[in-house]
Amino acid sequence: MAPLPSETVNGSSYSQKTKTLSEVRESILSGHVKAADVAGKYYKRIEQINDRLNIYLSLTKERALEQAAKVDAAAAKGDSLGPLAGIPVAVKDVLVMRGAPSTAGSKILTGYQPPYDATAVAKLEAAGAVLLGKLNCDEFAMGSSNENSAYGPVRNPVDPDRVPGGSSGGSAAAVAAGLAVATLGTDTGGSIRQPASFCGVVGVLPTYGRVSRYGLIAFASSLDRVGPFAANVRDAATVLSVIAGQDASDATSSSAPVMDYAAESDKGAEGLRIGVPEEYFGEGLDPEVREQIEKGIESLEKAGCSVKSISLPHTRYAIPTYYLVATAEASANLARFDGVRYGYRSPLSATLSEMYSHSRDEGFGAEVKRRIMLGTYALSAGYYDAYYLKAQKVRRLLAEEFLRAFADVDAIVTPTAPTPAFKLGEKTGDPLAMYLADIYTVTASLAGICGVTVPCGATKAGLPVGMQVLASHMEEGTAFRVARAVEAAHV
Amino acid sequence: MATKVTIEEVQRVAGLAHLQLTPDETGSMVLDLNAILDYVAQLNELDTSSVVPLAQVSELDGAGGASLLRGDVLRPSLNRGQVMSQAPETDQAFFKVPKVIER
Known about the structure:
The complex is a heterodimer. Chain A is of the alpha/beta class.
């Protein structure tokens, strides 16, 4: 492992260029390196810098070293190795791993050690990946800065005074800091794409149903997706092919065939039709972000894409729609945390009803309570039609607007977030201002379409900017082709 | 929409959600909910009288949506002992909770 980099932003940076997935795999395959040594090096770097950045919440060393030994034994025998053989990976702490603490960033799950693996986790391991541990995130994936974690915020490896984005802040930061080759996060309204953008890595929002949600601690079930982070587009595509596919344990998982997305990404972007929606370049967009995205769009023209301006006029209704739909679903999903079957139970309870309410009040943080309250209100008698049902109707308008746009273009490109990473504490006092950090990402969440965020240069201060590439349902291959072209242009 | 949420209403909703809010939490919740509800009121600008609600994107044509349920056959379930071991209080077979009925 390389020593800590010396170049800095505002005093100190922990960002590190990680080895690519195929470099690590080839070195193990050829016998030059042992998977156990690779895992050991990553654990050593985690020990060195995790205290400063708060990325990992827990390590799963025993299981990781056992898996690495298996990979090494198979390599020594010349057995065929899986596509992720020996690759050090880590997962957001909302995905369960058998016998490992799974907190969802919440005190209410203190001590919980689930008896099973999430499907995406099991698939990573079956492909040979070495699971290093569990990654910090906003409590129940509710947040846009990772400051809602009950275990303290993650710091952005590029500039530790800044947030890594959220809710999958740990997943993005782990890749940026060289603490894993690839990670899994989850995205309900932007929770993969926005932190990937803030940390300067690649993040993938798969189509709804592309990856099983079994073993994902649910936030909003009609919106939740599991997806990969990696340092480059091809690696992220490789991981998606591993975790995608139908699962008998998730009735919403799709039977659409899984493609070799890495091979798809190799096809080049020439001839693809790109739409640029004017609504994503209006008020609130940081001028430096705009400038970088415009350079990215120019690079796509140079790569042989045809670019045209399009309009998605319902865009401005996406945040209000999202916060009604997501909180309504959350209020139902989080009803299960009641101090009965797992996690925290308040000792201050004489009756069952008191036990429920004390356990929940002591166990949940402020943002989670705020969303449960909003969702319960929007679903309660007398308000259901005005709020929840209204939001579901606008959701259809937003989804259909995307489907119409994709009749004319193959992909849509936008900034991933309106600003680069902001400072810790900058938005914590104003829930609405924080919600607006997701203004460009919630639309694809509501429509169920897929997307990739890819680094698209940096601001003058050195803060990463991400471009969001959206494609229609099950068109991940197209999104990867466009993202590869932007990546190759080194904007 | 755009009804003002009162303290009483916040307390009623907290009861529905089994949340025991402190007076401080109740006060800030009134402010936050009103700010958020004012913001979402902009959805009223849209006439949605003839729009069918969309609960789940799998309902959309061409969304690759899943519709098949798995076969109704027995398959192994989680180990009971492991599941019970995660609960705050059990007698190994059942979850134990405080008294439900006073007498």
